Every structure is written in C-alpha cells, then in structure tokens.
Request: fold
Amino acid sequence: MGSQGLADVDGVVWMRKRVELTAAQAAGAAELHLAKVDDCDEVWINGQRIGGQCGWELSRRYAVPAGTLRAGANWIAVRVTDTGGGGGIY
Reply:
C-alpha cells in the first residue's frame, strides 16, 4: 500500500471508488476484475457484498448480480487485510 502512503500498515484498510454509469451500462449482470490483493479482500458494490478471498498471488474476478448496479453513482468498497509485510492492491 506504499503508493497510498500506507507502506508500513499491517491490518485492515478500506478503499472506496465512485463510478458513474448510464442506464444501459447498469442494466443486467456484470463482472468486476481487481488486480492482485495482498493478502485478503472483501468487495461490496452499493452496499451488497459480491465476494472476497485470500491469497496474494490471485487476481480477483467477481460476478456482479443483475440489480446491483444502478444508473448514476455506484460505490465500490474494498476491505483489504494485510497480515504482514507489503500489502494492498497491486
């Protein structure tokens, strides 16, 4: 998490991102791809948990069920847990 100024942090950090979508973009199911996360992640979109896993070497791919996304502002929240050493989303 060095690029976020958190290089020496072990523990939990929350990261959030707002994404604007059109009605056409928000229609139906989708898939969220994240880079690798060291060590564990849990992901929410608009308050709905869509997945999580542990393993620093794994790329993340999560199904986003139909009805989760909406036209306008959508919030993606990622809870990153680093158990030691370097960590974060990379």
Observations:
- The two ends are 8 Å apart (CA to CA).
- The mean pLDDT is 92.
- Helices lie at 23-26.
